[in-house]
Design a protein that fits this description.
Elements lengths: L1 H12 L15 H27 L10 H25 L5 H10 L1 H33 L7 H17 L2 H31 L13 E2 L11 H14 L8 H4 L8 H30 L7 H4 E2 L10 H9 L4 H17 L1 H17 L17 H17 L4 H31 L5 H64 L15 E6 L5 H12 L4 E8 L2 H14 L5 E5 L6 H14 L4 E10 L3 H4 L5 H9 L5 E9 L1 H5 L3 E4 L4 H4 L4 E4 L23
Parallel strand pairs: 3-4, 3-6, 4-5, 6-7
Antiparallel strand pairs: 1-2, 8-9
Helix pairs in contact: 2-7, 2-8, 2-10, 2-13, 2-14, 3-8, 3-10, 3-16, 3-17, 4-5, 4-16, 5-6, 5-13, 5-14, 5-15, 5-16, 5-17, 6-14, 6-15, 7-10, 7-13, 8-17, 10-12, 12-13, 14-15, 16-17
């Protein structure tokens, strides 16, 4: 059965990679740019449209403010890019905003940033795929009505590509990303050249329509007009989404990591600002009219008029004499908007792995898959994004309203953390050159904080009716991560070894006993003591080397405690537990066919079903495989955690015939589980789950 399931798995994601091949997956700058910058670059495809849609509330009189708003958004973007260049040099480990906030503001601030980033990554996938599909539908109207199905299919494809590994996904997505840059920049240059040099008249298809204000919104002035402009500014700030991705992905760069990441960030910011302002200029030049309700606001539009995206209208006008150019821009725009989700597929799994390592998320998110990618994180991200796509009907405009809050929460926490970082270093630094550099960096981060704080205030003030959903999700994630950490900390305290095991004489026997070891905690010590009592002919402890640092620490502690049972380490180049251990047991059976191999598996028992979700079940799979191996006995040595002991071991029961006689039910205490097996309904923990 395992071979039947392994073949399609290898076809879909490729052959498994050894742990020592991780260095081969690192990215050069030419591949890192499309991998980490596709989200930020693609944002310029819909951010100008969001500005125009917001201004359309007041009719055509407000449209001329679009370029002023665009300039302010560009200034904020450059400030954020400059600020994050300081981040990647100061914190190159890949924790990004989460690490900056945790180190400088404490764990609670770090969790606020982490929850904001996770919401942002999920919405990045949802917004990018639905926006890409919307652009494709604008060019191919026959696909209208199938947006949800198309968006879900795209997410599944992206998940499959990313499961094959970071380098493979980056190589696959590099060409469309560079094609999008060429398409938009080429359209901008050609449009300006036609207008200024050739004197061509270029008009968008909606330029002939009159854009009238929504009822009650005409002639806005004073505070109402200011509020509308602030709303348009906050909508345009969607162009900043994805800027932080590079700071979270520094470990994926080739050496020198920090410098390569900083250079890539600068290149991304320069290209994004140029493209953004180019689209704003062309939209004004071609007279694009966008409306929230085209049927009532676009006077003169035909009854069956379907509003195309702003970028589609601009490219159609600019390439009016060259139709292949229009279809090229439409095609690469749809691709880049879809592939922008790839940024989230790289950022979310890495962040999830770091949070899992810090015990704020389930440990399953910390492990790498066959292709050295964080496969569990990729699958979780795809699943949650698909829920959002279905819930919002694949409508990118509705999804974007939830989008910006998480981005700017993380921006603010990161910039304030960097200010504290530089202030702390300045207290001890005496070198004048280094102090000057730190002061300059602090000024840059301070300016970035002022800009992002203003944007966050504007977003909360103008979009709270939509943004509350994202805020609620952040609160839920924050509480969930605190609860997970509390659980893991409680389990670690319970499993900490507290006493030296007694040394027992071992009598000769034809039983070869193996104690599966992950860490020297109470369950392991109990399993060792229980195995000694069996008086086997051979007794040894075996651990599988999945994480070399943890294995070295275990060996050192084993020697320090003076445990006489030999500890054997099995190498696992593909980070598996089951296969190396099974091969070892089978080799023992081949060498001594008349011997019986007894495997002692220490396990701990939890009291609630949901706690099982927080612990791997690798040992359960191992036990299932060992049960089908001839000549092998499996012994479970349970350790009841406090949560299982608190749970009332009481059940209702009725004596035969008591119900018919109308007698009340009585309480009977359940018998305690025997040492040789787990309580009914409990599963074993992963042998490599250590103190989780």
């Amino acid at each position: 059965m395992s071979k039947l399931t392994d073949v399609p798995k290898r076809i879909l994601i490729g052959r498994a990679l050894r742990s020592d091949k991780l260095g081969e997956t690192l990215l050069p700058k030419r591949i890192a740019l499309p991998v980490f910058a596709s989200d930020a670059l693609s944002s310029v495809a819909y951010a100008p449209e969001e500005i125009l849609l917001t201004l359309s509330v007041a009719g055509v009189s407000a449209i001329h403010f679009s370029w002023q708003i665009g300039v302010v958004v560009a200034i904020v973007m450059l400030a954020v890019v400059a600020s994050y260049r300081q981040n990647v040099h100061a914190y190159p480990s890949g924790g990004g905003d989460y690490e900056v906030a945790t180190v400088n503001h404490g764990s609670n601030s770090g969790l606020v940033v982490a929850s904001a980033l996770m919401v942002d990554y999920v919405l990045t996938v949802a917004v990018s795929t639905t926006s890409g599909v919307a652009n494709v539908v604008s060019a191919v109207p026959s696909l209208r009505g199938h947006e949800v199905a198309l968006s879900l299919a795209v997410v599944v494809i992206l998940m499959g590509v990313n499961l094959r590994g970071v380098r493979e996904s980056g190589t696959a997505f590099a060409v469309p990303t560079y094609a999008f840059m060429v398409g938009v920049l080429g359209m901008t240059v050609w449009g300006i050249f036609r207008h200024l040099v050739l004197g061509a008249d270029m008009h968008a298809e909606s330029s002939a329509f009159h854009l009238q204000a929504e009822p009650g919104e005409s002639g806005l002035a004073g505070f109402a007009l200011i509020f509308l402009l602030l709303r348009a500014f906050s909508s345009g700030c969607a162009a900043l989404t994805g800027v932080e991705a590079i700071s979270n992905g520094v470990p994926a760069f080739r050496k020198p990591k920090s410098r390569n990441a900083a250079n890539t960030l600068l290149l991304m910011g320069s290209i994004a600002v140029t493209m953004f302002m180019g689209i704003i200029y062309l939209a004004s030049m071609t007279g694009v009219r966008m409306a929230d309700d085209p049927a009532t606001q676009l006077v003169g539009a035909p009854g069956n008029y379907h509003q195309k995206t702003a970028l589609a209208q601009i490219s159609e006008a600019v390439f009016s004499d060259f139709k292949p150019g229009f279809f090229f821009v439409a095609g690469v725009t749809g691709l880049i908007l879809v592939l922008a989700a790839n940024t989230a597929f790289n950022g979310f799994p890495v962040l999830g792995s770091i949070l899992a390592q810090d015990r704020y998320l389930p440990r399953q998110l910390h492990t790498r898959g066959d292709r050295l990618a964080f496969s569990n994180g990729i699958i979780v991200l795809a699943g949650i994004a698909m829920v959002f796509i279905i819930a919002y009907g694949a409508d990118p405009t509705r999804l974007i309203q939830l989008y910006i809050v998480g981005v700017f929460v993380s921006f603010n926490m990161s910039q304030s953390g960097m200010i504290r970082h530089w202030t702390r270093l300045l207290r001890t630094e005496t070198d004048p050159k280094k102090r000057a550099h730190m002061i300059r960096s602090r000024v840059i981060n301070s300016f970035g904080l002022v800009m992002t704080a203003l944007v966050l205030v504007v977003v909360l003030a103008t979009k709270f009716t939509h943004a509350w959903v994202a805020i609620m999700l952040m609160v839920v994630l924050f509480v969930m991560m605190k609860a997970i950490r509390r659980h893991y900390d409680g389990v670690s305290m319970e499993l900490a070894s507290a006493e030296e095991p007694g040394e027992e004489a071992v009598l000769p026997s034809r039983v070869h006993s193996i104690v599966l070891v992950s860490k020297l905690h109470k369950p392991t010590l109990r399993a060792l003591a229980y195995a000694r009592l069996a008086r086997s002919g051979v007794l040894e402890a075996v651990t599988v080397n999945v994480d070399p640092p943890d294995t070295k620490a275990l060996q050192a502690e084993w020697q320090e405690r003076g445990i006489e049972v030999p500890l054997k380490v099995l190498d696992s180049p593909y980070r598996e537990i089951t296969r190396p251990f099974l091969e070892y047991v089978k080799n023992l059976r081949r060498s001594s066919p008349r011997d019986v191999v007894t495997v002692y598996i220490p396990e701990y028992v939890v009291g609630h079903w949901y706690e099982q979700l927080l612990h791997n079940q690798s040992a359960l799979r191992l036990k299932g495989r060992l049960l089908f191996t001839p000549g092998v006995m499996v012994v479970s040595v349970p350790w009841q955690l406090e949560s299982s002991e608190r749970r009332k071991q009481v059940r209702e029961w009725s004596a035969p015939g008591s119900v018919r006689r109308g007698e009340p039910r009585r309480q009977q205490r359940k018998p305690e589980a025997a040492v040789s097996g787990p309580a009914k309904g409990t599963g074993p923990t992963n042998a490599k789950d250590s103190s989780t």
